C-alpha cells in the first residue's frame, strides 16, 4: 500500500476530457440530472397529490428528483515533489465533492441542451471512460432539468491512499516514476480531492454535524421527556 498527495496532471497521451454540461476539463467526473416537479400540499405542508409540470398554484412545493447519474474516469499523473506517479482510478473510491457536486446548468421545459453539450456527451462516451450518454436520457425537452457535476481537474490537489504500485512500462518514458492501480486484495484504494489535513478536517465537521442532527432528532422523538426536563 502507498499514500501520497500532489498535483493532478493529465496523462501525456490521452489528456483530460471536457465535462459534458460545464465544458470544464477533468480527469475524473461525476454527473447528476434532476427533474423538477411540484407537489400540492395542504395548509400544514403535507403532500396531497403530484402536480408535476403545471403552473404553480397556491400551497405547492417544488422538488428536484434524481433522474440519471453517471461517471467517467481517466488515468492521470500526480506530481508529488520530485516524483511523478501515474494513477489508474479504475476501482477506486473517489471523493471529489460534497453531496452531488455543484449545479452547473438548468434547462427549462421546451428547451434542449446545446450542440456543444451534445458533442461533449458523444465524445466522453466514445472515449470509453465509463460514461454512457443518450440523447433521450440526458436531454428531456418536456421537463425542466438541472445538471450537477463533480470534477477532479488538472491542477487540483489530490490525496491517494492504498492500491498497488506497479513497474512503469518502457513506452511511458522516464517522466513517470511509478504507476498506482487497484489492489488485487481488499485493501482500501481511495482518491480524495484536497490535502490530507483538509480531508480529515472535513470528515470531522461531517461527523460533528451528523451528531448534532441525530441528537436533535432524538429530542424531537421524546417530547414528553423533553417537557419534563428529563432530557
From TrEMBL:
Q: What name appears for this protein in its UniProt entry?
A: Uncharacterized protein
Amino acid at each position: 500500500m502507498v499514500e501520497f498527495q500532489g498535483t493532478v496532471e493529465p496523462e501525456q497521451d490521452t489528456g483530460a476530457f471536457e465535462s459534458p454540461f460545464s465544458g470544464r476539463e477533468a480527469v475524473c467526473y461525476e454527473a447528476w440530472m434532476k427533474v423538477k416537479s411540484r407537489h400540492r400540499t395542504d395548509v400544514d405542508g403535507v403532500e396531497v397529490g403530484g402536480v408535476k409540470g403545471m403552473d404553480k398554484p397556491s400551497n405547492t412545493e417544488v422538488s428536484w428528483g434524481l433522474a440519471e447519474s453517471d461517471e467517467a474516469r481517466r488515468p492521470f499523473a500526480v506530481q508529488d515533489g520530485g516524483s511523478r506517479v501515474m494513477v489508474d482510478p479504475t476501482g477506486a473510491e473517489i471523493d471529489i465533492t460534497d453531496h452531488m457536486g455543484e449545479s452547473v446548468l438548468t434547462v427549462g421545459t421546451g428547451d434542449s441542451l446545446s450542440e456543444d453539450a451534445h458533442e461533449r456527451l458523444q465524445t466522453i462516451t466514445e472515449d470509453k471512460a465509463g460514461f454512457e450518454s443518450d440523447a433521450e436520457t440526458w436531454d428531456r425537452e418536456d421537463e425542466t432539468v438541472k445538471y450537477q457535476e463533480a470534477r477532479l481537474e488538472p491542477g487540483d490537489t489530490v490525496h491517494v491512499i492504498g492500491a498497488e504500485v506497479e513497474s512503469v512500462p518502457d513506452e511511458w518514458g522516464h517522466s513517470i516514476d511509478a504507476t498506482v492501480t487497484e489492489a488485487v486484495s481488499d485493501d482500501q484504494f481511495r482518491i480524495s480531492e484536497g490535502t490530507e489535513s483538509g480531508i480529515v478536517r472535513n470528515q470531522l465537521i461531517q461527523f460533528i454535524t451528523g451528531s448534532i442532527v441525530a441528537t436533535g432528532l432524538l429530542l424531537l422523538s421524546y417530547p414528553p421527556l423533553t417537557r419534563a426536563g428529563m432530557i
